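User: I'm curious whether this sequence folds into something compact or stays loose and floppy. Could you predict its structure so I can see for myself?
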Amino acid sequence: MSRKGKKLYSINPAAIGMAGLFGLAGLSQLKLQGFEADHTMDLADNVQKYYVEKIDHAKRGAIFCRDLTPMAVDANAYVLTINFAQIPRVPAFAIALSEATGIPSHEFSDKDKGTRTWPNDLSPEQKAKVMGIKKDWNADGISVDSAEDRTYPLGQFASSLVGFQRMQTGDEANAVRAGLESSLNNVLHGEDGRQRGLQDNSGEFLPMRSFEPDKIRKDGAQVVTTIDANIQTAAAISIKKAVTDNKADDGVAIVVSPKTGDILAMATWPAPDPEQPSRSKFDGKNPAYKEILEPGSTFKILTLAKAYNDGLVHEGDHFMCSGTYQINSKSAIHCDKKHGAHGLVDPETAIAKSCNVAAAQWALKVGNENFLKYLTDLGLREKTGVEFSGEIKNRIVPDKWAAKLQLATWGFGQSMNVTPITLARAFCTIANGGYQAELRLIKSIDGEEIKSKPLTKQVLSKRACDYTLLCMQRVMEAGTGKTLQIAGYEMGGKTGTAQKMGKGELGGHVSNFVGMIPAKDPEAVVLIMVNNPKGAKYYGAEVAGPVFVDVAHSVIKNLRIPATSDISQTIPKTPEQ
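Assistant: Here's the prediction. I'll summarize afterward.
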């Protein structure tokens, strides 16, 4: 019989043996982690291995400026916790742990058997050393967890806005937060993950394949704000100087892009030290959105814009200012006593010289009901809707018993109290061509853009806005802001000096300035408010004006605003209102 085409295979006993061993091993592992999981845990207990649930701590999201300059990031620090019942009680162990952490060795020799957490933050290098000691000494009682502490690269330049987070004994549930750290906590904190497995007496975690992770860690979102780091820094430095030099209670410097509503800077002083907030002379009230102040004469430009828009005031109109305007037999409006009567003035001159009498007459022409609606349309009777922590509402309350007098004083920014941020928003309406402005502070969250809201609600005509901007330009050229010019740039501005009332008596001043850069088609609105200066100076041009100049230089440089004129003459330095 032929054997052609029939292949013979030899059988290797060793191969059969190896295959059998692998098969048995596989069956054994299946039996160990599957059918006999409970028995496996019992065996693990007998060899000092323990079933544990491992927490995979989420990383808190960072906060950035628009150019990704960090404002708040994790400090990459850790805290040490010891269960004294589960560590060796020998001097050598305490000395080794002391050398690794910098904590005195006697603190690791407590006689009680409780648990203690140290407030000293450990670096990543120190953490690695401690974990090595834990393994070498089989010290199950040692744990090193994220401190959840934060570091703030811009320091006090941005701290009143970004806020701070400080942990209490390493427990995030008891953390103290302020500013954006508080208002954005729901997107910053993330969610911890959990996984089950075994842990041996050296502290090594051994995940069980039979256990799927209970929960995948989700890190906190990365938040990008609209803040320009350079403009914010310049504003912070300058407002600090103004508050300090003039012995003021506090001060605010705000920069907004009127076309997008983006807040480019919001600096205040005093400001907390974000690394040690408890040592700061700061009451937690960010004056940009937690303090209401009288806008004073800066408000005159808003009054003029409305009267001009409604056809109640025209370019060629003239008003007589004798220094006083009688409202009724008991009440009268007065212009600043230092400068006296302004005589016959047109709107441009009235704004340039900051005439109360003219502004009061404009407001009276508009009327109570129409003016109140105008305040609503400007966004002055509501909060901004921006992600501020604890923003308060403005105080604009109609007085039916003195309606005419109140309306007249509204015309030049008195008898109302507003937050600086809502006032800046109102000025954006003039700068953007007449639309109600919608502010934006958050640019994106985890890469998803938070788009600017479209400008849809028109409050003023573009013609009224352009004329108002022209009047503001006259302020800088020949009026109360003429000492604040920057060579080569045509800017618009308006000074303001509001008298504060307290318990029926004068209680100091608020020194204000609002500027448009440039005067035509502005790229930035700058608002400066200095509350209660107690030095020799208190006029807006003297106190708030220099801050505007500093901020304007930074705005021009960082937004790359081209020169608008060939002004090169020396600018006079005569103090004005």
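Summary: Residues 13-35 form the longest helix (23 residues). The two ends are 125 Å apart (CA to CA).
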